[in-house]
Design brief:
Distance between the termini: 10 Å
CATH class: Alpha Beta
Oligomer: single chain
Number of strands: 11
Helix content: 40-55%
Bound molecules: glutamine
Strand content: 5-15%
Largest sheet: 8 strands, mixed
Order of helices and strands: HHEHHEHEHEHEEHHEHHEHHHHEHHEEH
Length: 502
């Protein structure tokens, strides 16, 4: 397996490798890993037509090489023959989409998500679906009907979630890039825990058509890769307004993503570090150390860093969970055994059918969230809580936008800690929710942010020794090009800070 998309495409063009060889090597690692007693459990399934698609790609490549049109072919299909990991909540026509939930077991998608269509038009091959927290609700990929996804760096640790499957697959080099989804950090968090790059784009830049909804005003597809370039390429292919998603939007400067270069103009770069995040009680000293190293790097390049006071950030977790769970309760009402979901039949009427179907089909965390969401939405009990959550969100949006009038990026860790041991927070929802402390403001403010693999915890760290630590670069809306260029500058100065390829 190659390490970057760029070198893979070069090897495909020159005939040094074939799409069949790439796909076969992914299948082989998947099959051999399954036998391990600490299996990663990143892929749940390799789609049954991947070798056929790879053969067809190889035939096109061979023909174009023979008649001298290979560059033209790859200009039209820049990812021809390149396999990628899909998350189990993104639709691929005719394939299972279960959101890692019992209620959707056996459900087959009737159409492609727009992001899948666009990648497929560029020649890329959806290799298979990857594990996730049920309905993307979680931060560790332990809340899955298929069991947890382990962290490839140390298999006793969680991969992070909810896009833990796609992320572990990339980190273990089973595949070059992967798709995840974010509602409140589900791409950046696993990227940080597994030591790879993970981008959450501006809300709207990637179409949500064909993606199973969790919190619709927050949901966004994200991309995981070994390098910023490997994120920029699929982003340029998938981005842009979509007829089927009215909240979608074009990404200005998407051309500069096609050949991503490292950021250079550091002397005029202004960085904001939110004071509130640096004062977190649970901030691991090793995470703080990695964060200080990143600040030192920025300073050595000539950037200016200020600590900024943004008290509203202290309310971001509360606002996020009120909004996300309310939207989730509403979105998940369609899984009732009538419209969607595996029906549990009975002779006692529809009400009992709903109850039995939903009691049987959803796991405990999803049920907890539906109950809280419906409670928050009910006017007579806590309707005002929802309004309060929304007004806090509006303030976060306003204050973050204002900050970007004076600063280019917000810099902060992705999470107060590195990955935790499997099971450590499983029965403690509050502790699990607090993993999202630094990520959810980004979703609430609808801005883009990239998790950058920036270092490791020390050998003596009691909770997590020698585990990766991610730092995030967040920019104003539609500034994907800038944050990716900054990440590329980091990557070029720090090769090897991500996960070593096995
Ligand atoms: N951990 C957060 C939650 O459980 C975020 C999940 C996500 O981004 N999908 O809601």
């Amino acid at each position: 397996m190659f390490y970057t998309i760029e070198e893979t495409v070069e090897a495909l063009k020159s005939g040094k490798t074939t799409s069949v060889a790439l796909v076969q090597s992914s299948i082989d690692t998947f099959e051999s890993d399954k036998k391990s007693d600490k299996a990663l459990n990143a892929f749940l399934e390799i789609y049954d037509d991947v070798l056929e698609l790879a053969k067809a790609a190889d035939a096109q490549i061979a023909e174009a090489r023979a008649n001298g049109s290979i560059d033209k072919l790859f200009a039209e299909k820049p990812l021809l023959g390149v396999p990628f990991a899909n998350k189990d909540n993104i639709s691929v026509r005719g394939k299972s989409v279960t959101c890692s939930s019992k209620i959707l077991e056996g459900y087959k998608a009737p159409y492609n998500a727009t992001v899948i269509d666009r990648l497929a038009n560029a020649g890329a091959i959806p290799l298979g679906r990857c594990n996730m927290d049920e309905f993307a609700m979680g931060s560790s990929t332990e809340y899955s009907v298929y069991g947890p996804t382990r962290n490839p760096i140390n298999r006793d640790y969680v991969s992070g979630g909810s896009s833990g499957g796609s992320t572990a697959a990339v980190a273990a080099n089973q595949v070059l890039f992967g798709l995840g989804t974010e509602t409140g950090g589900s791409v950046r968090l696993p990227a940080s825990y597994c030591g790879v790059y993970g981008l959450k784009p501006t809300y709207g830049v990637l179409s949500r058509w064909g993606v199973v909804a969790y919190g619709s005003s927050l949901d966004q597809v994200g991309i995981i890769g070994h390098t910023p370039k490997d994120i920029a390429t699929p982003l340029s292919i998938m981005s842009g307004a979509d007829f089927y998603d009215d909240t979608s939007a074009d990404l200005p400067e998407s051309d500069s993503l096609k050949n991503l270069t490292a950021y250079k103009d550091f002397s005029s770069l202004k960085i904001a570090v939110p004071k509130q995040f640096m004062e977190t009680k649970g901030l691991d000293p090793d995470v703080k150390k990695v964060f200080d190293d990143v600040q030192d790097w920025f300073k050595s390049k000539g950037a200016k860093i200020d600590s900024v006071d943004l008290p509203i950030l202290d309310a971001s977790i509360a606002s996020y969970y009120v909004i996300a769970l309310s939207e989730a309760a509403s979105n998940l009402s369609r899984f009732d055994g009538i419209r969607y979901g595996n029906r549990v039949d009975n002779k006692n009427g529809y009400d009992q059918l709903y109850v039995d179907t939903r009691s049987d089909g959803f796991g405990p965390e999803v049920k907890r969230r539906i109950i809280i969401g419906n409670y928050v939405l009910s006017e007579q009990f806590s309707g005002p809580t929802y309004k309060k959550g929304m007004s806090v969100r509006a303030r976060i949006q306003r204050e973050v936008a204002k900050l970007f009038e004076s600063y280019d990026i917000i810099l902060c860790p992705v999470c107060p800690t590195a990955a935790f041991k499997l099971g450590a927070k499983y029965d403690d929802p509050m502790a699990m929710y607090l993993s999202d402390l630094y990520t959810v403001f980004v979703n609430l403010a609808r801005i883009p942010s990239i998790s950058v693999p920036a270092g490791f915890t020390s050998e003596t760290n009691e909770a997590a020794a020698k585990m990766p630590v991610g730092i995030q670069f967040a920019g104003k809306m539609f500034s994907e090009a800038k944050i990716l260029q900054l990440a590329q500058a980091w990557e070029e100065d720090h090769k090897g800070c991500g996960v070593p390829v096995k």
